[in-house]
Amino acid sequence: MTLFDEMMKKAASADGFLAALDQSGGSTPKALKAYGVPDDKFVAGEESMYDMVHEMRTRMITSPAFSGEKVIGAILFENTMDREIEGLPTGQYLWEKKGVVPFIKCDKGLAEEKDGVQLMKPIPGLDELLKKSVSKNMFGTKMRSVIKTANIDGIKAIVDQQFEVGKQIIEAGLCPILEPEVDITSPEKEKIEDILKEELMKGLDALSDTENVMIKLSLPTKVNLYKELIDHPRCVRVVALSGGYSREEANEILAKQEGMIASFSRAMLEGLSYGQSQEDFDKTIAATIDSIYKASKAP
After folding, report:
1. What residues have CB less than 8 Å from 179, skipping those under 6 apart?
2. In this model, does residue 25 exceed pLDDT 70?
3. What residues are labeled active site?
4. pTM for this one?
């Protein structure tokens, strides 16, 4: 069995969830502030910021509770993939020491809103990033776009773009996570989700037998709305973003969705802080991981 096949087996069938540790340059200062890092410890956009965020992620990943028993995979930012934890490249450390499947965020942010959606910006150098990711034993990628209104043309454009880039990623030897996020504050959220589900089903139906994807979605208003996607043979897994909900709220909604698992970012950081003792930090992250794991296993 190849390394990719081993990781695929874990990603497709293991109990647990994905930890989204992929805050990029734009969202990193906010994440560090939430974590309680003093302003004088880093300069936004400078190397000191990336050093500090790597220190935060290393603290999370090396904590005893962060392991493949409950965390199936972790989504990284390119800068984290390029660094090391305890002398090993981050992706290698995750898989070999923790049994956690590594993914890489590959998008370059969002374009301006048009037709009620924000497509992904063009991704220059994607082929090079994919080659590098394969060489660093990444299993998959993740890329995000956002839907704000129930505009059919906009939603079709979002899904088309996600699958188009997804196929390029599959050809490079990686498994893509398609992330067409629905803005949870949209008054049309439920209607958006109905349209999105139909378009995603069309996209999955058009894939060949050797093309498999994961899908990351906002928690749906209707319970089990995405069950058909989850059961589709071309869909490895459907994972949920917390998308602005508190961890408690997100866990509560997720626990009602059969077969959907978490891929939380902000909710993973809740309760963790820079000034905590190692003992408190480890206890807090263990409780967080346990609560998200339980919500991902239910019902």
Report:
1. 142, 143, 144, 145, 162, 215, 216, 217, 241
2. no
3. 179, 216
4. 0.96
